[in-house]
């Protein structure tokens, strides 16, 4: 096929595109319109016709070597990669449009307030599963993971800086990605996401002009099609492949004979893996082999507290103050547990839940640039009611006994169910979507009382977007990809 910037350059459909002027040159733009999907048999027919006539037919120049693969659908088996299309394509373009000074005359330009936007962004403390802390908008090297975090979590930071309709427009894309990156997706979710992406595509032309409806914006309209075929976007993204390439790079340590270095390193790792299973020697030897064979060596000390819970780090034995003792008392009485005469408990800095998610407490002072202590937890009396809070301490009371209660002392938060975006001027035809695109974010409006809950009642770790001007909480998405 011809390239993406040529006539009929989309590999999934037969949208012709239109050559439009941009700066001193031109680009191929794809205005919003209904499209006709390509098929394997049709593509093969066009390829044979192109070879016979030496003319390009609907963007097809001839047969590909992939046509020789049996049972391979050359159209449907080449899905759109959201890492390059959405993150490195659309998201990077949006950031450039908003902050690049060449757009200083445009209504969406906010480069004059870049310091304010950066102050908000750099003040955020992401959870530990987000590998990169926020960095400046001025840098020109945002990685795909940074673009993903920005799209899914950081957009509310631009509220009051980016004009309302442009923020709403970006939130349409954010909501669609949240739906298509979920671990489990219903047919209804796919349809909603498809409508949101179609709307995003149409409004891109209205808000930014046809010249900014490039191929990546057009490809958004095909994401739902591939999710129906292959599942969530993370199942067929390039993240796993790029991670594997990074693993290959780490297997070479010089500039000479790189291929041999990679093969030798791979063989050594394979032999270690085999030896790990065969080793019958002392426990310390097995532990050493395990460390060599493990991708990321963990130095965390874990103590199994129950079937679904483990304490991490070194526990300290402390005496409770009167406030904590009164907070713990209702939970302990409910479990028929009495605090010993000295009021001592074991204090854990963090704990690992059943799904291998590590929750920190605010009492853990070693981590200063992360917030992994904001959580959702369940109310036993109202199982359908999700509550929000910040874990202050993990305690085991009484310590070192079979009937110990593992509790979290939580500062409960008072929240609004929807982020405060009433001022946003949704276009009249999508005003009904205002709650949909904002419902993933809740605004913190104050603190309620502290309470003690069983650690097992913690549901999930949250993304706490707290700045001087705002405090918004949202639940994490894309666990299966982020936690790999």
UniProtKB/TrEMBL annotation:
Q: Which PANTHER family match?
A: F5/8 TYPE C DOMAIN-CONTAINING PROTEIN-RELATED (PTHR46579), F5_8 TYPE C DOMAIN-CONTAINING PROTEIN (PTHR46579:SF1)
**Which protein are we looking at?**
Transposase domain-containing protein
Q: What is the lineage of its organism?
A: Eukaryota, Metazoa, Porifera, Demospongiae, Heteroscleromorpha
């Amino acid at each position: 096929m011809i390239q993406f910037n040529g006539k009929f350059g989309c590999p999934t459909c037969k949208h012709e595109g239109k050559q439009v002027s941009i700066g001193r040159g031109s680009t191929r733009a794809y205005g919003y319109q209904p499209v006709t999907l390509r098929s394997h048999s049709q593509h093969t027919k066009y390829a044979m016709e192109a070879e016979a006539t030496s003319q390009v037919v609907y963007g097809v120049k001839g047969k590909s070597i992939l046509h020789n693969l049996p049972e391979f659908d050359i159209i449907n088996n080449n899905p759109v990669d959201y890492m390059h299309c959405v993150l490195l394509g659309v998201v990077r373009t949006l950031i450039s449009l908003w902050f690049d000074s060449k757009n200083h005359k445009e209504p969406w330009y906010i480069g004059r307030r870049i310091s304010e936007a950066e102050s908000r962004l750099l003040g955020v403390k992401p959870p530990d599963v987000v590998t990169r802390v926020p960095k400046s908008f001025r840098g020109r090297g945002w990685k795909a993971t940074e673009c993903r975090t920005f799209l899914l979590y950081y957009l509310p930071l631009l509220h009051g800086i980016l004009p309302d309709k442009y923020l709403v427009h970006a939130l349409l894309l954010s909501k669609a990605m949240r739906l298509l990156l979920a671990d489990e997706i219903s047919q209804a979710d796919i349809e909603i996401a498809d409508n949101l992406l179609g709307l995003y595509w149409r409004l891109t032309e209205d808000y930014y002009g046809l010249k900014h409806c490039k191929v990546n914006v057009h490809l958004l309209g095909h994401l739902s099609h591939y999710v129906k075929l292959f599942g969530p976007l993370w199942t067929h993204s390039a993240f796993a492949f790029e991670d594997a390439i990074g693993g290959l790079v780490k297997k070479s340590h010089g500039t000479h004979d790189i291929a041999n270095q990679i093969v030798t390193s791979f063989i050594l790792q394979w032999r270690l893996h085999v030896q790990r299973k065969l080793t019958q020697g002392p426990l310390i030897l097995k532990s050493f082999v395990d460390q060599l064979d493990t991708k990321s060596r963990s130095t965390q000390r874990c103590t199994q507290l129950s079937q679904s819970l483990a304490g991490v780090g070194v526990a300290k034995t402390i005496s409770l103050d009167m406030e904590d003792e009164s907070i713990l008392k209702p939970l302990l009485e409910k479990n028929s547990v009495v605090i010993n005469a000295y009021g001592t408990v074991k204090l854990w800095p963090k704990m690992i839940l059943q799904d291998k998610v590590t929750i920190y407490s605010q009492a853990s002072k070693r981590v200063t640039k992360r917030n992994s202590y904001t959580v959702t937890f369940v109310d036993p009396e109202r199982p359908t009611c999700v509550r929000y809070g910040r874990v202050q301490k993990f305690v085991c009371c009484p310590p070192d006994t079979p009937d110990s209660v593992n509790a979290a002392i939580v500062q409960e938060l008072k929240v609004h169910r929807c982020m405060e975006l009433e001022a946003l001027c949704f276009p009249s035809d999508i005003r009904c979507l205002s709650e949909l695109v904002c419902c993933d974010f809740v605004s913190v409006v104050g603190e309620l009382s502290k309470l003690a809950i069983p650690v097992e009642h913690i549901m999930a770790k949250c993304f706490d977007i707290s700045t001087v001007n705002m405090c918004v909480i949202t639940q994490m998405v894309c666990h299966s990809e982020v936690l790999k």
